[in-house]
Each structure stands twice: as structure tokens, then as C-alpha cells.
Fold this protein.
Amino acid sequence: MAAAKKRVGILISGRGSNMASLIEAAQAPDYPAEIALVVSNRPGAAGLVRAQAAGVATAIVDHRLFPARADFDAALGRAFEEAGIELICLAGFMRILTDGFVQAWLGRMLNIHPSLLPLFKGLHPHRQALEAGVRIHGCTVHFVVPELDSGPIVAQAAVPVLPGDTEEMLASRVLAEEHRLYPLGLSLVAAGQARLEGGRTVFANGSRTALGLA
């Protein structure tokens, strides 16, 4: 008997392009996760329409309606718990989650960041990469921990930085890899091939070395 698919919730704030790549990947019969709910903190997020068109349940938890971040996060938690969500993926979610929420979902929440972490954390990573003069850039799927963009790495993909690149050109090249990498990273965690243990990502073969992908 095949193992039950993990129920995944996705948090978005905008167009949801990475969300769409996860939904598409999860349509494969052998994919170990199902996208069960998409939640946005912005009622007008275009990603909600995309999710609904794909037949995925959606919900809006408007952060502006809550007096404190903890109250907003508690409402998010209730939405996921009521839907039986087992894993959360952040996909262009533009809110900083409280430590309490992160701890509650530790080892069960993933993010994708458009750089080869630990390089270029935070905002404008493509600008940071160009200003630093690096020749290789990329993206990282990682477990979410309280410190921003600092969680243990699940998977990475690299792209070249080409002469004459602008932020937009580099971002486009990285985004194409994000759409490939995020479904892979989620599949590893959903299938039990990668897990958070002792502050490190541990893979099924026993390695404590972060998985690197060209």
C-alpha cells in the first residue's frame, strides 16, 4: 500500500508563481504530497485565483484585521489545523512569522530564498549578488527557523551570473530554477527523505551534508 500523501498548506502574499509550481508537481500520481490549502494575508493576491482555478481550497487571513502579529499567526495556525495540514510552504509570503508560530511548525515548514544561502539573506538578494561580483548565484529550499533565512538547507540550485546581467535578468534566471527546485525540496521532506534533526538537515542515507544540486 502506498504511503498517504502529506497534506500541504501554502502561504502567499502575491502572484504565487512558486505556489503554482508546487500545485503542478503535486498533480503527479507518485508525488508524496497534496496541496490541500492556500492561504493569503492579502485578499487581492493573484495567487488565490490561480489556486482556485487548479481546484485547491483557499482562505484569506488578512493581517490588517489583527492587533498583534501573534493574533494573526494564531489565526493562521487555526486555518491550517482545521484543514489537517501537516507541512507548510512559504511561497512569496511577505510577513515575518512570530517565533512561537515557527517553533510550533519547526521541521514542518519550508521556504525558498533566491540566493545560495547563507549568502545574501534578506531583501534584494539579486542586487546583493551583483554588487558582490559573484559569478554563481542561485536559490535555496530550507527549513524555517526563527532567524530569517537561516534554517538548515534542504536543496540548492545554481545559475551563472552573466556579464551585463541586471537584477531583472538574474531574477528571471533564478526564478526558473526556483520552480524546479521547490517541488523537489518539498518531495524530499514529504517522503521522509529529508528531516530536521538537531538543528541540521538529515537525509535518508544518513548524511548530514546539505544536498547540493546543479
The radius of gyration is 17 Å. The chain has six helices and nine strands.
